[in-house]
Amino acid sequence: MHQAPAGPRTATSQPDGTWSGVGGTYTPFPPAVAWPSVAHMLQSVIALCLLYGTALATYRITCHPLAAIPGPKLAAATFWYEIWFDVVRWGRYTHEIKRMHELYGPVIRINPDEVHCSDPNFINTLYATGGKRRNKSSLFVAGFPSDLQLGGFGTLDHDHHRSRKSAASRHFSRAQIQRLERMVHAAAQRLCDKFLAHRGHGPFDVAAAYSCYAADIISEYCFGEPFGFLHQPGWDPNFREAVYAMFHLIHIMRHFPFVVWLVDRVPMSVINAVSENAGALAYHSKVKLPMLVRQAKAAYDAGVQMSQNTVLFSLLSSNLPAEEKTIERLSGEANVFLAAGTETTATVLSLCTYRLLKNPDIVVKMRAELLAVVKDPQALPDWFVLEQLPYLTAVIKETLRLMYGLSSRLPRIAPDEDVVYQGTWTPPATTQAVSVRHVIPRGYAMGMSAYLVHTDERLFPDPAKFAPERWLLRDGRKDRHLERYLLTFSRGSRQCLGLHIANYISLSRR
User: Fold this and answer.
1) Lower Cβ count inside 10 Å, N or C end of the chain?
2) Where does heme bind (predicted)?
3) What is the mean pLDDT of residues 131-135?
């Protein structure tokens, strides 16, 4: 046996590894601690996640500032309710919101931090003007590509958005757009010439044609030179297919922002291999527009004489600080003009063409009205003349009603005030209207959907029908009382800058 080192006590080691001495038998060191298995650790993590999720859901349903707003408890407890309808069922949440309104009333809670209203009379309160601040929802903006988030469209803060908007607003006024008639008329004539040249050669996609038309006008107006889509032999390439594909990803990108990061990093070679049209959009948004911005900025900084009739010049010569005039920021703004101005306008024209072809009686009425002012097919009337035509205006208003703009909700946040809703509602299976009052606390998103307002049978009976007459009085004059319910271009202080130019392009094409 081995003797323990000498000391105040002596102990002797035993064959089993223990030591014995005066005080008895003992182990020299504590036994090794057994670590839990991977399975046990995984179970613990899952249990903690479930506990946290349960506690969070309980708080959202019972103690959250929006807890008093009616709606499904599952929608109030978790964002996964919205994800199920928008991602798994591919953009169906707007329809689910409509069903929820039928069950719970005009104001409902659609996710843990957002409220939705279906009452058209709430539009002016939600999309307020007159100095009332309205921020954008970060969840809404997160659904768009990163370059669009750099422009005014993706600006969250009200005051920041106002400064960015004011820099370009001069170029989107009625007076400024009237100066562009020669350019718009020339593009409309080229489009009509291509239509006539294609006669007898079979069907073609009119949406692609309108995409080329709108893209050439917007590019020349904003950047000083057209992309030249109307001068190519056919209609390809164009932006339509690629923009549609981008918008199909919005529901996914909104809830999973890493998808935005992935989309931004897809190589040009891969995009070109997938689609010629997608390659065209990627080239213009990632190469062409930054190049135009870089050239314009260099010329402006060097004092070189340049055209002052472009949106790009307005931005460069504005009072925006230097950090707002970087190549990256201005390229993002340019992409907003391109995406918002091209395909929305092209979609309006496509829908209008389809509806007119389906309703020849409407074409007869509109043609008779136009023949009274169009004396020479080569000399189109001024915008001021066209917008005075009541039936033509009614056709465009009805097209805008059925086009919706963005069919999903347009949320806003009131940072300085609690927003009060006061209205009435008739619950299901009853005929008695009840008074409804809700307070939406400041700092929380609240939105409305153009689709739900534009198909509200109280405002637009038989909403699926294309009926321009609903915008006219019995004597044929314009009836303007329904215009306040049009949300195609949004409303309030964040209304789309391109409202007038979109209307003008539509009028000129007629």
Assistant:
1) N
2) 496
3) 93
Can you state the angle between helices 289-301 and 327-358, rounded to 10 degrees? 130
Copy the structure tokens of residue 228.
């030249």
Per-residue exposure over 309-344, b if at least 16 CB sit within 10 Å of its own CB, e if not: ebbbbbbbebebeeebbeeebbbbbbbbbbbbbbbb
Give 152-158 contacts, CB < 8 A, sequence gap 24+: 152/333, 152/336, 152/497, 153/336, 153/340, 154/332, 154/336, 158/133, 158/134, 158/415, 158/493
Higher per-residue pLDDT: 69 or 508:
69
How much is the pLDDT for 22?
55
Q: Which amino acid is at 178?
A: Q
Count of CB atoms within 10 A of residue 116's CB?
A: 26
Is 69 part of any domain?
no
Asked if residue 188 lies in contact with residue 374, where contact means CB atoms within 8 angstroms, the answer is no
Phi/psi of residue 447, each to 5°? Answer: -145, 170
How far is C-alpha 392 from the geometric centre of its chain's CA atoms?
28
Rounded to 10°, the helix 327-358/206-223 angle is 140
Write out pLDDT tens, residues 404-429: 888 889 999 999 999 999 999 999 98
Residue 205 φ/ψ region, left for φ over 0, alpha for ψ in the -120 to 50 degree band, beta for the rest? beta
Helices (H), 4-106: 38-62, 73-77, 80-83, 93-104
Distance between CA atoms of 356 and 396, rounded to whole angstroms? 11
Q: What is the CATH number of the domain that holds 333?
A: 1.10.630.10
Task: Give the residue numbers spanning the domain of 318.
Answer: 146-509
Tell me if 413 sits within 8 A of 137, measured CB to CB.
yes
**What DSSP element (H or E) covers 393?**
helix 390-403
Pairing of strands 445-449, 114-117: parallel
Neighbours of 467 (CB within 10 A): 17
Backbone angles phi, psi at 459, to 5 degrees: -95, -40
Query: Hey, is 21 helix, strand or coil?
Result: strand
The number of domains in the chain is: 1
Return d(Cα 349, Cα 207) in angstroms, integer: 8
Q: Rg (Cα) of the chain, in Å, rounded?
A: 31
CA distance 367 to 391: 10
Instruction: With respect to residue 111, please indicate whether it lies within any of the assigned structural domains.
Output: no
Phi and psi for 434 in degrees, rounded to 5? -120, 155
Q: Is residue 159 part of a domain?
A: yes
Query: Three-state DSSP class for 22?
Result: coil
* Residue 32 included in any domain: no
**How many Å apart are CA 413 and CA 416, to the nearest integer?**
9
Structure tokens at 245: 């594909």
- List, in order, residues 6 or more apart from 491 with CB less than 8 Å away: 123, 124, 127
CA distance 436 to 422: 6
| Cβ 325 vs Cβ 333: under 8 Å | no
| pLDDT for position 1 | 47
